[in-house]
Amino acid sequence: MSFCKGCGAPIDWVTTAQARKMPVDEEPVFVIPGDGRDRFVTDEGEVILGRLARPDEEHSPRREVAFVPHWRTCPNADDFRRR
Question: Number of structural domains, the chain?
Fold first, then answer.
């Protein structure tokens, strides 16, 4: 575990399928793939589009476990964007 240089939150790193390191929020979430436009990343580094599962969907066979890219939740994400 490491900490975000922008906001100090604990983050983990996942290697994407393109062999790039992506900072992600520490806690995994349940995702309903294909039912939304938000990006999530799996442990294997696959980026999936979907939405957060509602509590009543957390046991659905459609759900996947993934991580939220930290740039979505970091209040200082703009400080790290490439120009």
Answer: 1
Residue of 42, 6, 38 lying closest to 24 (CA atoms): 42
Which residue range(s) make up the domain with 75?
2-80
Cα radius of gyration (the chain) = 13
The Cα–Cα gap between 57 and 53 comes to 6
* Tokens encoding 34: 């294909």
* pTM (2 d.p.): 0.86
What is the full per-residue pLDDT of the chain (83 aa) written as tens digits? 899 999 999 999 999 988 999 999 999 999 999 988 999 999 999 999 999 999 998 888 889 999 999 999 999 988 877 76
Residue 57, phi then psi, degrees to nearest 5: -105, 0
- Please choose, from the candidates 27, 75, 29, the residue with its C-alpha nearest in 3D space to the C-alpha of residue 55: 29
Q: Which two tokens stand for residue 40?
A: 């999530």
For residue 7, how far is the Cα from the chain centroid? 16
